[in-house]
Every structure is written in structure tokens, then in C-alpha cells.
Amino acid sequence: MGRLARRIADRRPRHRADPELELYVLDGERLVFAKRMHPMALWEPVTTAVLVLFAGGWLFSRLPASAAKAHLPDILFWAMLIAVVRGLWHWYEWAFRDRLVVTNKRIMLIHGFWDRDVPMMSLAKVTDLIYRRSIPARVFGYGMFVLESAGQDQALRTLGELAAVTRMGQAQVHGSVQAAPVGNRLPRL
Predict the structure, then answer these.
(1) Dihedral sign (CA 144, 148, 153, 156)
(2) What is the DSSP string of 46-64?
(3) Which residues does residue 159 pair with via DSSP β-bridges, in sequence order?
(4) Which letter, b or e, does each residue of 142-157 get, where b requires 16 or more Cβ atoms within 10 Å of its Cβ?
(5) How large is the average pLDDT for residues 169-173?
(6) What is the pLDDT of residues 14-46, one digit of tens each?
């Protein structure tokens, strides 16, 4: 690629689908992929909300009339409302905020709305990359990446509830890990 072509490529927006990624991808980095977590990441908050709604509805039907004086219906209502709002909040973060971002130099997990956490790891530090899938993960189509690095504990060790990685996705991540110490050059897929 010539100098003129590189200059033109640098001026184009890199992340049309999610302009917020511009905040985290540095100059000289190339985005390999950015994905959200598998819907199974919502299993606990959604299950909790549904169970609280069923238990609250069952308790509402069993409350005696004298329970209104003790404010038990109010407490049940607020508990049910909090559980539903918590489930909706987790869904919102999953759908619009949480992302796994892999560039040719780093892996980042963007998480949170009020308090934005972005643990990241340089691909040059990654020595082993393991993709684990339990039996439920195989049934529902998700898995977990385990990143191993030389020496110390890292902030980004496990990436859970990732959508099933296809062979192309594995090749992209593997190519990025293999090419990271060399520089910006990545093998063509």
C-alpha cells in the first residue's frame, strides 16, 4: 500500500457501527473485531427478576387483608420493581454498552455505564489462549476465553459468556496473538 493510500485510509472513520470505540482504539491500531457478550450473560439477572415476580405474585395472592397495615404489599411491590429494574439495567448494559474489543495490539473488555471499566491486556503479553466450552455452553452456543500471560496476574484473565467463536474468529484472534510481537503486520485471512 502506497503512502497516498495509507493517508486516505487513515482519514476514513474506522468504526462506523460504534463510534464510541474511537475512544479506546489508539492510533496505529487496527480493529480485529468488537462483539457483545452472549445472551447467556443475562441468565442470572433475568432469572432473578422472573423468580422474584413469581414469588411476589404468589405472596400477593396469599396475603391476608390485615397485612396491608404492616405495609407488606408495599414492600413486595418495591422488591418486585427493583428486581425488574435490575434485570432491565443488565439487559441495557449488555445490549448497548458491554463489548469485547480485539485490536492487533490489545484485548479490551468495555463494561459499565456510570463507572466505565476497561480492563485491557497487550497481546504481546499473552502466552496462551484457551477457549473453553462446558456442556451447557455447547448447548447454548457460548464459551470462555482464558488468557495466560508470563509471570503476573492480569486484570483481564477470563472472558466469559462469549458467543461461540467460529473458525474465522479463532483465526483472527490467533493471527492477532501471533502477530502482536512483530508489529502492525497481520496475516491475511
Answers:
(1) negative
(2) HHHHHHHHHHHHHHHHH--
(3) 145
(4) bbbbebebeeeebebe
(5) 56
(6) 455 567 777 788 888 888 878 888 888 888 999
Picking from 156, 149, 147, 66, the residue whose alpha carbon sits closest to that of residue 109 is 156
Q: Which amino acid is at 143?
A: G
**Which three cell numbers, joined as nine digits, stand for 108?**
479490551
SS3 at position 95: helix
Residue the block writes with cell 405495609: 71
pTM higher than 0.70 for the full model? Answer: no
Residue 98 to residue 95: CA distance in whole angstroms: 7
Pairing type for strands 142-149 and 106-110 reads unpaired
CA distance linking residue 14 with residue 94, whole number of Å: 23
User: Strand (E) positions, the chain?
Assistant: 31-35, 99-103, 106-110, 120-122, 126-132, 142-149, 158-163
- 138 dihedral zone (left: phi>0; alpha: psi -120 to 50; beta): alpha
Write the CB contacts of 163 (distance below 8 Å, at least 6 apart in sequence): 35, 37, 38, 141, 142
